[in-house]
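Field reference: "sequence" (input) and "structure" (output). Example, Nitrous oxide-stimulated promoter:
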Amino acid sequence: MVLQRQQQLDEILSGELLKEYKTVHAMIEIYCAKHHGVIHGLCEECTELSQYAKTKLDRCVFGQNKPTCNRCPVHCYRPEPKENMRAVMRFSGPRMLLKHPLLAIRHLRHEKKAVPEVPKKNTSNRHLRKSSGKL
């Protein structure tokens, strides 16, 4: 099942977007384990949040040059998922250094990069994937 989930991710996200999703998903797993008591995998609510994050990463106007969400000039999350993700990140951020140190350090380094200007239309991962024939 884990391999199947990884293959689905690889089909939709790649490169920096896939790394970003793995980081976000790991944070959601930490949060879900402590707040919802789920040991392996995610509860339904956290699964929805993870899927929402994947969709937003796929549709991000910055594509592979995406800044971290907290530094992004484009606010794409709806209010409720945005608050849920903030709670996840506040709780899981410090714990990432213990559970997933490489992902955490990579994310901290990525936060230091300059925020690019908002690109022209049709540069999202989703648009590029669809225009190249990959669904």
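The chain has one domain: 11-131.
Residues 11-131 form one domain.
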